[in-house]
Amino acid sequence: MYLSTIGRREHPGGVSKKSFALLGGNVFALGTVSLVTDVSSEMVTAVLPVYLVLGLHLGPAAYGVVDGLYTGATALLRLAGGYVADRVRRRKAVAGLGYAMSAVAKLGLVAAGSSATAIGVVLTADRTGKGLRTAPRDALITLSAPEHMLGRAFGVHRAMDSVGAFLGPLAAVAVLAVAGSATGTEGFDAVFVTSFCIATAGVLLLALFVRDHRAPKPPSGTVSLRAAAGLLRGTGVRRLLIAACVLGLATIGDGFVYLLLQDKEDIATGWFPLLAVGTNLGYLLLAAPLGALADRIGRLPVMLGGYGALVTVYLLLLSPLTGWALFALTLGLYGAFYAATDGVLMALAGPLLPEALRTTGIAIVQSGQALAYFVSSVLFGLSWQFWGATTAITIAAGTVLAAVAATFVLLVPRRKARP
């Protein structure tokens, strides 16, 4: 009973077309920007593992560091972006700066050539842009929908986002085919330039169609470093941050999952980006329904169910299953994992945070998870390098189970003692 009510708000009408209409145009405008931007970013993400490991011959340990930087580099900038956005009360402007930085970084990949160091610097700049934009964007979503509909709002946004993530790898495959080289650097350069052009369109859509949320200026001292640090004095925020870090430590990067699949099934390089298409199709189909389900039965059980799907993905990679059954189950469940966890975690965070520090609070949670993810990627890469893929994925599966148990203990509502 207690588990099913965390994050839940009673509301009439259940899931209906009318309830989705109440979300407002800003949620859909932000979703459109994310859709276009994700076409761009997923074009790069889909080819990056095979480009680095097979094209530039990086080992698993080196790839783990690069992959960790790709997400972990956002951590400190999420904090800075969140605080600045709350301080100046211009969340849209800070998000726009982040989108623009990521767009320009796509051209940097062309200039970096085959230098692993230069690629690491460019990817850090790209993820810096993501770090600046993510918390202000998610804060705008929480401020553009009623509290009892936050699961739906994030579900709709993430569904639109995943449309772009679904189309991005397909666009990468198409560009590689047109470029006439699935393995040479010329084909990859064409992907990076095309990605830049699409990302620029996303920045323009943000500038033209997204409305900022300019609340009245809060009393002096409400938005300050002291007040931001004070958020962690709240039991709910502190527990959610710890849980986010624990779950981040249990999650390995998408690239590792796809590289393990490729190693098991010997997928041709030109078809490698299609693995992300399968994952994003599952995400696309399930994000909105699972967001609505989280509003109805509770956000915590849906999120923990998502990590249950992740454990199953890891076990499938260890199983003797092969062929289309392996692809369908692994990629479908991987998409379900993202649909049940990504937006739902932010929907859990929103009601715990005051409006004046909403962006900062979300950034704190996201930063903790990003830093934990960096550690996870490095450790998984080292484990694969020195102990082999089977041992590494076995450890990862056990870590997820431990993380789910710890999160349950941290976040399940406490029964109040009777007087």
Automatic annotation (TrEMBL):
Membrane topology, from the record: Multi-pass membrane protein
Location of the Major facilitator superfamily (MFS) profile domain: 26-415
Keyword annotations from UniProtKB, A to Z: Membrane, Transmembrane, Transmembrane helix
GO cellular component: plasma membrane
CDD domains hit by this protein: MFS_MJ1317_like
Pfam families linked: MFS_1 (PF07690)
Location of the protein in the cell: Cell membrane
Gene Ontology molecular functions: transmembrane transporter activity
Domain of life: Bacteria
Xref: SUPFAM superfamilies: MFS general substrate transporter
Membrane-spanning ranges: 20-41, 162-184, 190-210, 240-261, 267-288, 300-318, 324-349, 393-412
Protein name (record): Major facilitator transporter
Organism of this sequence: Amycolatopsis keratiniphila
Lineage: Bacteria, Bacillati, Actinomycetota, Actinomycetes, Pseudonocardiales
